[in-house]
């Protein structure tokens, strides 16, 4: 039996809807249903009356809910005590962020934050989007940084998980320049000579962004997959070595563009703007986090 099964069950009891509870728990409806079934198998009884609409708890489900809420409350209280004892002294933050954000945005942002709010100690955990969301939902971080596009939402409950936009990044095609400072690999390419593409894995967030961008194109570019990775820094290194064209966040290649070591591989029509957001659990209250959130909500998103 897993704790997340109990959390799923309580969410279902609250929402009385498999789809809404699944969305709240940030899981597919089919996956959510399987977890409820696994809990029922562990208990040895049906907890949900699926013959009614909306679904309601069976008598066994009502009894189990009372015990489950009591057990979870005690676990959460104990966890809060332990985490408080293990927190970094002073003004501190536990931050979950994608690798690109952790490398290229957070160092400068945290330095600026300290100028406004005094010394800030931060523990940054670079991870993928899925694990970042889990850290936020499970209470393992105060802040989560993630990219956002309206057509590729993260499906976090906006009431429970507040957000502030702290910047705009641009996913843009980049290439090594030739001696005339033009791109070696220029979009859109040709059928006879498709451009070697250094791309993201399909399941990564940038991979989904790239699929969205290319799907919007009036004429598909001629591309041939050359290398693939889920990390922008890997793609950047391969582009720097002249291996092909890749769509990279402008924040990761700003200095290379300025120095002329990389150039855009096509006009701005091939770019995709994406928000950089910071999220918090609205129920997680502490004086410093509230002070920080006040600054961000007031529009001091860059803290310049």
What can be said about this structure in brief?
The protein has about 300 residues and is of the alpha/beta class.
How would you describe what is shown here?
Helices cover 43% and strands 22% of the residues. With 304 residues, it is of the alpha/beta class. The chain folds into three domains: 3-85, Arc Repressor Mutant, subunit A, CATH 1.10.10.10; 90-164 and 279-297, D-Maltodextrin-Binding Protein, domain 2, CATH 3.40.190.10; 169-274, Periplasmic binding protein-like II (D-Maltodextrin-Binding Protein, domain 2, 3-Layer(aba) Sandwich), CATH 3.40.190. The strands form three sheets. Strands 3, 4, 5, 6, 9, 10 and 11 form a seven-stranded mixed beta sheet that branches. A two-stranded antiparallel sheet has the order 1-2. Helix 1 crosses helix 4. The radius of gyration is 23 Å and the shape is globular. Residues 1-58 form the HTH lysR-type domain. InterPro entries: LysR_HTH_N, LysR_subst-bd, WH-like_DNA-bd_sf, WH_DNA-bd_sf. Belongs to the LysR transcriptional regulatory family.
């Amino acid at each position: 039996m897993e704790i997340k099964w109990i959390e799923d069950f309580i969410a279902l009891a609250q929402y009385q809807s498999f789809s809404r509870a699944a969305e709240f728990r940030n899981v597919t409806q089919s996956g959510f249903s399987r977890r409820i079934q696994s809990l029922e198998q562990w208990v040895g009884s049906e907890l949900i009356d699926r013959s009614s609409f909306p679904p309601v708890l069976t008598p066994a489900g009502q009894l189990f809910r009372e015990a489950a809420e009591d057990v979870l409350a005690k676990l959460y209280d104990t966890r809060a005590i332990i985490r408080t004892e293990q927190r970094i002294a002073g003004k501190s933050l536990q931050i979950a962020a994608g690798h690109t954000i952790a490398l290229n945005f957070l160092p400068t942002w945290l330095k600026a934050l300290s100028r406004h709010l005094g010394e800030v100690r931060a523990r940054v955990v670079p991870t993928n989007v899925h694990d970042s969301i889990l850290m936020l939902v499970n209470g393992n971080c105060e802040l989560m940084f993630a990219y956002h596009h309206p057509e590729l939402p993260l499906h976090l409950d906006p009431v429970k998980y507040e957000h502030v936009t702290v910047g705009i990044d641009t996913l843009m095609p980049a290439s090594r320049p030739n001696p005339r400072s033009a791109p070696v690999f220029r979009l859109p390419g040709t059928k006879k000579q498709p451009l070697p593409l250094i791309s993201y894995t399909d399941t990564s967030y940038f991979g989904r962004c790239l699929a969205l961008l290319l799907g919007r194109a009036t004429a598909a570019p001629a591309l041939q997959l050359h290398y693939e990775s889920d990390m922008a820094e890997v793609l950047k290194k391969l582009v720097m070595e002249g291996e092909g064209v890749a769509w990279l966040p402008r924040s990761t290649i700003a200095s290379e563009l300025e120095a002329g070591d990389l150039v855009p591989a096509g006009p701005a029509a091939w770019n995709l703007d994406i928000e950089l957001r910071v999220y918090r659990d609205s129920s997680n209250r502490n004086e410093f986090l509230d002070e920080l959130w006040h600054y961000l909500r007031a529009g001091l998103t860059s803290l310049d």
